[in-house]
Amino acid sequence: MLFTPCPNVGGKLTVADFVEKNLGLDSRKKLERIGTGGTSNEKGNRYESFFAVAKICSAVATSLNDSNFDNYTVSAQEPAFVDDVCYKVQDLNEKTNYQAKNSSGPAASWTKDIEERCSYQKNIDLNYHGAKTSKNVLLVSSRSRRQKNIKKIPQNMRTYCFCEHFPYLESSVELILAHKPLRNDLEKICAESNLQTLDTAFKIIHSAWATSSSKAKRTVGDIVGEAKKMSRPNIFHSLVPERQVPKWLMEKCAAFHGCNASVESGVVYVRYNGLEISVPNAPEDLSADLEKKLLAIKKVDAFVQLLTDFTKQSFL
Amino acid sequence: MATPENRSFSQYASDGAKAALQSLLKSDVNPAEYQAAMKQLGSLLGDVLAPLIPNSAKCLVVSTAEDADYLSRGVLDGLKNDHIAKTAVFWNNHYSLDNGTSIAPIVHKFLEPGYEKSSQLVVVKSIISGSCVVRTNLLEVIEQVKAQTIYIVSPVMHKNSEASLKSEFPSKISKKFKFIYFAQDAVKEKSGEVIPGIGGEIYPKLGLDNQPVKTGFIPELVKELTHMH
Question: Per DSSP, what are the bridge partners of residue B158?
Fold first, then answer.
């Protein structure tokens, strides 16, 4: 179908107006029905939001080197024919739209309706949003359903229509254990592999994703910024600036056999016989007061107490 | 002794356990009495647990910092008579995210050297309500320890906690869970507090001002096991 190229210069035309002008009133009504009839069941919502979090994690992990997190946008339920999750890469001017179906049955089948929606969506992306590339994806939780669907996508649509698999799991722990790419991304973001940390990171990003304080579109940088603020302690260690072990801390640890200080991904740790104290707020330089306290400390228990007293300040 | 409303007891609840649970609920209980009752409950739970675990099996008792000196020490005392038991203590920062999800990331940790060789995990908690802390502390060690059985041990649990905790894990992990508790309570307030539970928030009851991570508190058990003294 041919569309009248009508880039939305100045934002004067809504998506619905554009659709009505180019596709007619019936299509506008269909678009509006899609917008109001979004998935409202718990499982569907969980599937979509877990996928959105996975996309956010992927974007963050991909751009750790240059920290260009604002190059990516993840949003949901925009006025669109393929409307569950929308992923944009700004520098490529690429827009990918996902329709999520966590079913292995017919509900997740590639249909003529999906075909029509993908076709319309491509044209909205190119001609209304001004995207250079539009991709439209039917996201399914069943691998076998994906295989069947791929075969059903007409040859001439395969440049912009896809079917991808993303597993449906009830809990974040199950998802992290089942979906290796997500785990790899979380490990990069947290700079560690402990399952507890990865799951906590997932939950925090999920909260940042799910509870937008404004309706404004947020970049992945905005979402991760909110997640960092919510994380106490900050477990997004790859986003913590590098630092050295403070000299005073190194020297004091040396006074106690078996006591070691180190910095891992920007966080200062002191370890002693199986005990690991994190001191994220350890000062770089000694104040007169701290120097006095350190001089008075002769036993390791008093030293460890001083450190936990430091850390507690971060949580008050 | 009358059973509090909305409470049922498990097969493990002896008269001594019931009396200790009751003493937690006294309005005028002081921290020393409360600590003693918790330690006694821990010993009684340890007594229940010990015969269930083969003597040759190595155990890892996982505790929060606030429970370490009382409930968990009691469990360890019960176990250590005829088992090798290592200890893990975690300082959680327990709070709610903006979307209402409860999390409890670990700030400091103690893992007794050799803990990785344990085959029996014993996760101890003074009360299990939403199971967030138990879940967190279990996740912290689950991939380091090849656990054959995972005991979730608490004097009091909310009636939905068992199902809630199981639902968070894949079945290959949750099928290893065995719940050892004395009482199950049916009522939970919006704040998450189980009623009658353990008589209120644990920190002031034990004589702590707040969560250990916010007070700098270091349990005596950790000081002993790290040979700080």
Answer: B185
From chain A, pick out residues whose CB is under 8 angstroms from the CB of B105: 196-197, 200, 231-233, 235
Q: For residue B2, is it within any domain?
A: no
- Give the mean pLDDT of B183-203: 93
- Domains in chain B, number: 1
The alpha carbon of residue A229 is apart from the nearest alpha carbon of chain B, in Å, by 11
- Distance in angstroms (rounded) separating the CA atoms of residues B72 and B221: 9
CA distance B151 to A120: 55
> Three-class SS of residue B188?
strand
Domain containing B130 — which CATH number? Answer: 3.40.50.2020
| Dmax (CA) of chain A | 82
Give the predicted TM-score (pTM) of the model. 0.94
- Picking from B117, B209, B228, B229 by the largest number of A CB atoms within 10 A of its own CB, the best residue to mutate is B228
Helices (H) and strands (E) in chain A, counts: 12, 8
- E strands, A43-106, in order: 72-76, 85-89, 94-101
Secondary structure letter of residue B99 according to DSSP: T
**Which one of A197, A272, A308 has the shortest CB-CB distance to B226?**
A272
**pLDDT tens column, A69-120:** 999 999 987 889 998 999 999 999 999 999 999 887 888 999 999 999 999 9
Which domain, by its residues, includes B43? 7-225
Residues of B in contact with A278 (CB under 8 A): 107-108
From CA A111, how far away is CA A146, in angstroms rounded?
Answer: 13
C-alpha–C-alpha distance, residues A69 and A202, integer Å: 17
